[in-house]
Amino acid sequence: MFKRSFAASREKAGKARKISKRSFRDDTKQRMREALNDATPNSSPSLGGSSPKLNSAIVTIAVGKDQRLFAAHEDVLSRSPWFAEVCREQFFASPGQRRITLPDEEPEVFSAVLEYMYKGDYYPRLLHDRKRNTYALEDVEADLTMQSISPQLDSGKKSGGLSDHAVVYHHGVGDYVLRDTVIYCSALRFGLADLQRLALRKQGLQSGIDVATILRSARFAYANTPPSDSRLRAHYLALIIRSRKTFKRSGTMQMEMEKGGQFFFDLFVAMANHIDDVGEQGQVSPSHYLLY
């Protein structure tokens, strides 16, 4: 019996091991994912570095026009100043009757917000390669060095076909908008500043977004952020200036500009400032930007 076992082991040892063909990008992402998985759950710095108390009262949240139901612990919801105030107003309600209604929120977006409040991130998670100081989205095939949205001309295809995580159908808009933009605006409403920063960084890693979706999302951002909150607005202005050749060829851009609004006035100011800055550096004459 021992002899047979020894022979079998020799045969296994003699077999050539097949080398897995993995790209450098796959290996890098795997290391980033393993580092993220090694972190202690519910210990994100954005959530105060402590796990939530899961023995607090359960609150029911009805979201969207179809009133989709979510359940969450009161202590977790109270990480948000907005939810903390609502929970205080329902302090004397019996545990089974504590209910919050959010008719203007999208269930897919609120699900991401709730996931963040429990875990410190939402799917797809943000992966950080500390050695190269680059970021990537979990399970998303994208260039690890990409730091900003890559727009493309309208293809006529349904925007929702881009990817399940990049866009979300918003009933208030009646069309698809960038999911991270909606999450940013919800985070602003609920007082989750760290979630705002996270959503903005994730949105910068998206690619292949059509011009119509970008402009629609920019209008949504302007409609759901105050003038004092300039980060998301500035993100869209910088994106259009940086990718002006693509937007210049877009018929959608022309139609949107005819509608006007604060967004396009800000774009004009930002574009003028950009031309002035470039002109002062002596890199190009302002007349170079004239449209013929």
From TrEMBL:
Pfam family, one: BTB
InterPro entries for this protein: BTB/POZ_dom (IPR000210), SKP1/BTB/POZ_sf (IPR011333)
Positions with biased composition (Low complexity): 42-51
Compositional bias annotation for Basic and acidic residues: 23-36
Disordered as annotated region, ranges: 1-51
Residue ranges annotated for the BTB domain, each copy included: 57-121
SUPFAM superfamilies: POZ domain
PROSITE patterns on file: BTB
PANTHER family, alphabetized: BTB DOMAIN-CONTAINING PROTEIN, BTB DOMAIN-CONTAINING PROTEIN-RELATED
Name the UniProt record assigns to this protein: BTB domain-containing protein
